[in-house]
Amino acid sequence: MATPLLAGKVVLVTGASTGIGRAAAIGAALHGADVAINYHSDDAGAASCVAEIKAFGRLAVAIKGDVADPATATDFITRACDALGKVDVFVNNAGICPFHAFLDMPAETLERTMRVNLHGAYYMVQAAANRMVAQGNGGSIIAVSSISALVGGEYQTHYTPTKAGVHSLMQSAAIALGRHGIRCNSVLPGTILTEINKDDLADEGKRTRMAARVPLGRLGAPEDLAGPIVFLASDLARYVTGAALLVDGGAFVNLQ
Ligand SMILES: NC(=O)C1=CN([C@@H]2O[C@H](COP(=O)(O)OP(=O)(O)OC[C@H]3O[C@@H](n4cnc5c(N)ncnc54)[C@H](O)[C@@H]3O)[C@@H](O)[C@H]2O)C=CC1
Ligand SMILES: C[C@H](O)[C@@H]1OC(=O)[C@H](O)[C@@H]1O
């Protein structure tokens, strides 16, 4: 039998009590990794993610923290490494998208979205990278950006710049960290059915429109991101850095 892709690796994922982060954490464990997850407030979701991972024989730990607080980054990396020994792969996933119109965007909604999605990513990636550099054995950093890094959204004027921002962060970090053998890439999901858009896609008309532009014929599921993230995490992607992988069922290229 082939060696699992992430055997011997420790993977850290933010915002992993639900959705894409949870699928990435479980996917990494299914491919042989031990996993630490950050989560914001959903104690039950975090505990069930840990239990699911442990049930198939991997180590797992959940550490609570708000990624918008810069102190959470060093706290998460330190406590995760204390528990699991090291970090080989860091997945920056935590994010929010409180849909709102542009002309009356509340300042606090704009600022919270920037702090969670972009500042949080910056501090987390920086803390993970410092640890990887100190370990001296390279690593892989993956940011969950979005198709929204490339295209706009009427009710996402505060959100799309954060997704372009994390995509750009991976490009610059790839240059800054290449000499340390640390690869930095992003995945760009299309529309994936999760908590983040449950209310927005409760609108049957919008949901049908969004699905209609996907050549593969359906909206995404969180598990659709697990394979691409595991690939970028693994040594199969050893010469891939600064890249962005659309995982959107073809929605982006579907102009007509
Ligand atoms: N669902 C979609 O269509 C798409 C989602 N994305 C991105 O995927 C990532 C994951 O979102 P989904 O799984 O879709 O939704 P989700 O709502 O299930 O997951 C977001 C996770 O981030 C956590 N989180 C939010 N604020 C946090 C904070 N301050 N500190 C720590 N954790 C926090 C939430 O608790 C949740 O577990 C986000 O960055 C989102 O922008 C990107 C493209 C498409
Ligand atoms: C939350 C949205 O449904 C989702 O977020 C993204 O980044 C995608 O582009 C979708 O708009």
Concise summary:
The chain is an alpha/beta fold and 256 residues long. It has helices at residues 19-30, 43-55, 70-84, 107-135, 160-177, 204-212, 226-233; strands spanning 10-13, 34-39, 60-64, 89-92, 139-144, 182-189, 244-247.
Question: Could you walk me through the main structural features you see in this protein, from its secondary elements to its overall organization?
Answer:
The protein has 256 residues and is α/β, with parallel strands linked by helices. The chain has a single domain (10-248), classed as NAD(P)-binding Rossmann-like Domain (Rossmann fold). The protein is 41% helix and 14% strand. Strands 3-2-1-4-5-6-7 form a seven-stranded parallel sheet, sandwiched between helices. The model has no long low-confidence stretch (mean pLDDT 98). It binds 1,4-dihydronicotinamide adenine dinucleotide and the ligand C[C@H](O)[C@@H]1OC(=O)[C@H](O)[C@@H]1O. The ligand C[C@H](O)[C@@H]1OC(=O)[C@H](O)[C@@H]1O is lined by residues 97, 146-148, 153, 163, 191, 196-197, 200.
